[in-house]
Each structure stands twice: as structure tokens, then as C-alpha cells.
Amino acid sequence: MLYQLYEAQRSLMEPFADFAQAASKLYGQGAVFGQTPIAQRMAAGYDLLYRLGKDYEKPEFGIKTVNVGGRDVVIHESIEVDKPFCQLRRFKRFTDEPKILQTLKSQPVVLIVAPLSGHYATLLRDTVRTMLQDHKVYITDWVNARLVPLSKGEFHLDDYVNYVQEFIRYLQGEYGTCHVISVCQPTVPVLAAVSLMASRGEKTPLSMTMMGGPIDARKSPTAVNNLAMNKSFEWFENNVIYRVPDGFPGVGRRVYPGFLQHTGFVAMNPDRHASSHYDYFKNLIKGDDASAEAHRTFYDEYNAVLDMDADYYLETIRTVFQEFDLVNGTWEVKSPEGTQELVRPQDIHSTGLLTIEGELDDISGSGQTRAAHELCTGIVSSEQHHLEVKGAGHYGIFSGRRWREKVYPQVTAFILEHDQPQTRAPQGVLAQEDAVPAPSRARKRATSAAARKTSAPRTRTAARKSP
Q1: Which of 275, 302, 329 is the last residue before a domain boundary?
Q2: What's the CATH number where 364 sits?
Q3: 3, 31, 90, 131: which has the highest count of C-beta atoms within 10 A?
Q4: pLDDT, tens digit (0-9, with 9 covering 90-100), for 149-187
């Protein structure tokens, strides 16, 4: 019933939001009432009301070009694999300059596994844009569960793990090799996916980079962890799970609604959000367009949320935050063939491991991601590295200045360090990137030098000392 009430309230607010937007324009510069004494305040007030009342749709990545070798390269998005609950999205780079084309060809293939925890994959826009300078980039673009008809079946945490394995195999089939980056929530299912592939004797990714995720949520628990740990499984099932109402393709599907997640996000820092909106109002009055646009950009992303399938959400709560199955060695994943397979991270041998944590992360606490090293005992210590980003919160390790200046040089150096020649045959299309030889040693040295300038010391978790 709560979902229906929310949709009714949203429909009721829609005309008022439209009115506020129109009124803001009427009081804008050069408009009908733009010359009245209080025009700026009225325009700012109505604009704020509009943004508080409007409905936020899924944003676009909007990456049109990136700079490679001093030249702008055109980006084209395409869907490479289309699953009911996820699309594997590729950012293909195009150029007609032979020198730049050869650079694009030689760069590593990276699968970015975006979180399925409330926001869309576009939350990693800055991650993708930066990675595109030196890598072929694919990302998991998760689908809003309320848009998936019941006829498409259920979606469980096991399905998430199986999707990741399928995407890795797809990239290996296309290029022969790939690297995987997981941000926040997917660190756990990604580690499970690679572990299962290793246990079966399959080829695993050349490297795994895990950023700010709850591998072991018992370490330095945050407010997010405490909520999941202190409430019973039944509490979550009875209080946050609702059925999608009429008007959506997924009508009748049990979900954890996006609007409830958004309420939880805001409730974590209500004063900060109230202050941010008031600053936006003042910036509009002052005519500080740059600050106002930065506010819009952030909240267009922050306020756009998706529904998660109830089975997946509840199983994540139980497996990751209540029973700690991964670190306890008791997690079994059901394969597409229906067999139960035990997740054994110790079976991973040929994949490099880099973990990254933010010093001030209030979502995944200190040590939670680093715990992956304690599980991956089959990886030699020289292939295990850890980075703690000083002064960075949760979002700072994958977005913003600290990501670009401190984290990214480390990530790209680590990937190049573990890259191998790709085996996909060129398709004969000069204007698009293909996969051929691996990066030169000179490029590796240059990138590693850049990383050393901006990074914190790397540590070997297994050996407990610097490499």
C-alpha cells in the first residue's frame, strides 16, 4: 500500500512542480516579472521548489568525447549483452588518426561492475570518463526492477554472481583477457564470481580492483552496517518490501523501492542536505551559476534511484551483513545449471588483487575491503596491493579530484602491470578501437611513475609489509 500512496503523492505533486518551474522562468532575467524588486528571490524560491518536487529519471552517461594522447576521441555507447536485469554497456572510442588508433588498440579491457544498491550505474560517470583515457571500458548497467515484467523471472544474489561470470566470459571471448573493477556493493559478488571460475579451472581476469566494499562488514562497522546487522531478516522483509503498483511493466514484482532507499540516504545526513539546498537558493540569488549548476548535477544523480528485486536485496542483507557467509567460508552459489557451488577465494591464483579504501569512508568502514587479501591466500603476496586514500570519503575513491589525482594513477598502473597481449583478431575497421598487442614497456614505466608521485604507499596484505 505504501508504494501506491507514494505514486499517488508523486502524481499529485507533478503539476505543482511544473507550476514552480514555469513561475521561476517568469521571474527570471528578461522575463515578464524579471524587473520587479524581489524577482531574483522569487525565481530562486520557485526553482528550489521545482527541484524538491520533481521526479528524477535515470540520467544519461553523457560522455561524448575523451582526450587520448592530446586529441579528442568520440565515444559511442552500445549494449553488448542485454539481460533482463542488466545490460553490459560498452563505451566504444572512434578516431580517424592512425597514431591515436594504435594507442586505442593497445589499451587494456576493463569491466567496471557498478553497484546495485539504489543508484544507477551513471553514479560512476566520472570513473568511466577517466578510465576511457587509457582503457577499453565496459560497465554493468543495472535495470530498475519495476521495469522488469514478472514473466522475466526472479533475480537473486546468485543471479548477480552468474551475470558477472557471463560478462567476464564474454569479454574473454572478444579479447582473450580482461580486468575487473568493482565499486562498493559488487566487491562481494565479484569476488565470488572470480572464485567460482578459479575453482572450475576457468581463465580468470588478469586483475581485480575492489573499491570501498563490504567484503567483511564486521570490521569497523558503519551506520549502514549496523542497521543491517541489528535488524532481523524478518524485519527487512516485513517493513521495506513492497509490490510494484499498476502502471509499470513490473507490476506485482516484490521490490525494495527506490524512494525508500532515497529516504534512507537523506536520513543519514539531513543537515548536510538542508544546508546544500539553502546554499543553492543563495547561489541563485547571487547569480553564481557555476555553483548552482554543480548542485543540479550532483542532485540529478543523487535523487535518481531504482527499485531492487526483493529476493536479491534480502539475500544480500543475510549473506553479506548478517551471516557473513563469504568470510566464514559457507557461501554456496547456485549455478545456471542448478548445482550448488562453494565460494573459495583461496582457489584464485593468477589474478592480481588491488583493494582501495577511503580514510573517511562512512559506508564501508576501514578494513572491510582490505579483508579480501585475507581470503585470497592463493595469490602470491607480490600480486596483492592495498591503497588507503587519505582524506577521501566513500565517493571520493571513485569520483572527483581525489579519484582522478590519487586513485586513478594507481589503478591504471596496477592494470598495466598485469596486462597481457589480447587475442581478438582485428575487424578491419580503421575508425574504431580493436584489440591487438599489449601496451609497451615504456608506457608502463611512465604510468607507474605517475602513480608513485600521487599515491599513498602500497602494502602487501599477505606479507604485511611494503613490496
Answers
A1: 302
A2: 3.40.50.1820
A3: 131
A4: 999 999 999 999 999 999 999 999 999 999 999 999 999
Which structural domain range is residue 46 located in? 2-55+258-302
Q: What is the pLDDT of residue 423?
A: 61
* pLDDT number for residue 464: 33
Residue 267 maps to a domain:
yes
> Three-state secondary structure along the chain?
CHHHHHHHHHHHHHHHHHHHHHHHHHCCCCCCCCCCCCHHHHHHHHHHHHHHHCCCCCCCCCCCEEEECCEEEEEEEEEEEECCCEEEEEEEEECCCHHHHHHHHHCCEEEEECCCCCECHHHHHHHHHHHCCCCEEEEEEECCHHHCCHHHCCCCHHHHHHHHHHHHHHHHHHHCCCEEEEECCCHHHHHHHHHHHHHCCCCCCCEEEEECCCCCCCCCCCHHHHHHHHCCHHHHHHHCCEECCCCCCCCCCEEECHHHHHHHHHHHCHHHHHHHHHHHHHHHHHCCHHHHHHHHHHHHHHCCECCEEHHHHHHHHHHHHHCCHHHHCCCEEECCCCCEEECCHHHCCCCEEEEEEECCCCCCCCCCCCCHHHHCCCCCHHHEEEEEECCCCCHHHCCCHHHHHHHHHHHHHHHHHCCCCCCCCCCCCCCECCCCCCCCHHHHHHHHHHHHHHCCCCEECCCCECC
Q: Domain total for the chain?
A: 2
